[in-house]
Amino acid sequence: MKLAAAAAAVSAASAAAASAASATLPYMLFAKLALVAATVWLASLVSRRLGHAAGGLLAGMPMIAGPITGLLLVDQSADAVRAVCLATLACQPALMAYLVTFAHAAQRWRWWACLFVASAVFLAGGALLLALPLPEWGRVALALVAPALGLRTMPRAARVGAAGPVALPRVELAFRVAVAVVVAAGVMWGAQHLSAGLAGLLLAAPIAGLVLPAFTLPRHGGPATAALLAGFARGQAGFVTFFVVMLMTLPLWPAPVCWALAMFGAGALPWTWARIRGAIARRRAAGGAPTPRSG
Questions:
Q1: pLDDT 10s digits, 267-282
Q2: How many CB atoms lie within 10 A of CB 252?
Q3: Torsion angle, CA of 204/188/17/80, rounded to 10 degrees?
Q4: Please, what is the Cα angle at 14 between 181 and 16, to 5 degrees?
Q5: Alpha carbon 255 to chain centroid distance?
Q6: How far apart are CA 37 and CA 159, in angstroms?
Q7: b/e map of 155-176 (b: 16 or more CB within 10 Å)?
Q8: Please, which of 57, 88, 168, 236 could form a disulfide with 147 given CB 3.0 to 4.6 Å?
């Protein structure tokens, strides 16, 4: 009975997500489209300067979801926003499955085939996760471990195209932003006109994760695409942190405080993770270096 109630709660969370989307005011619509455009633009610029992995890391952070959740807090109750956070976390393992599927498929197939198969995996996995009678803590636990598991199952090619500047013409940058805005508009339209469950899945869809690899694969190849998606998976650590903090603190503290703590945690965790990984890599490099002979 408890598990059935938990499944019903997540279904209600998906319905709340759809309700929040259908109640979107004009400024919310403009804000989301602007955030999508800015995220794709910034991630592409970071990729051009620092490499595909760095651009993916930025795109995987809650660059869109964080501010949009803050705006939802202005118009929706804390309980409704918490329900949206729960629905997003419930779908997060499906998002990681999308990233891993696209990364592996990119080593063999063209971008449209990768996008089709990975999107099918995301929709099927998300629908299954929403239907499973899991308690709230179980859904949070799955969301917390999903980024690490996703990184471990990324193809080895992800390490090949990870660093270094990337050639990115201004025309392609403009096309990336334009396509991202069109996709975001379609997602929001679908969230307002489709069933609550499908609307919740659409709201959890990674718009930048749909657009960026589709442009990266034909121009830069499979290893670069895998590096981009591995970086996106690392950014998901901050994404999950944001929604977990919101889920845990909204019943306790004022909404602005919860949002500020969630945004801080979303940035602090990936930064700390990168520092630890860098320190481990330097230690290994120092341990493997040949020691100079004396005398």
A1: 998 778 777 877 887 7
A2: 8
A3: 120
A4: 90
A5: 23
A6: 28
A7: bebbeebbeeebebeeeebeeb
A8: 236
Q: C-alpha angle with apex 210: 15 to 36, nearest 5 degrees? A: 75
User: Considering only CA atoms, which of 291, 288, 199 is closest in space to residue 14?
Assistant: 199
Closest CA to 68 of 204, 211, 175, 198: 204
Residue whose tokens read 């329900």:
83
Which residues, including other chains, have CB under 8 Å from residue 198's CB and lie 6 or more apart?
Answer: 190
Q: Is the dihedral of CA 254, 256, 260, 265 positive or negative?
A: positive
Residue identified by tokens 């309700």 is 19
Q: Report how far Cα 6 is from the mean position of its chain's Cα atoms.
A: 24
pLDDT tens across 180-237, in order? 999 888 877 776 666 656 666 776 788 999 999 999 999 999 999 999 999 999 999 9
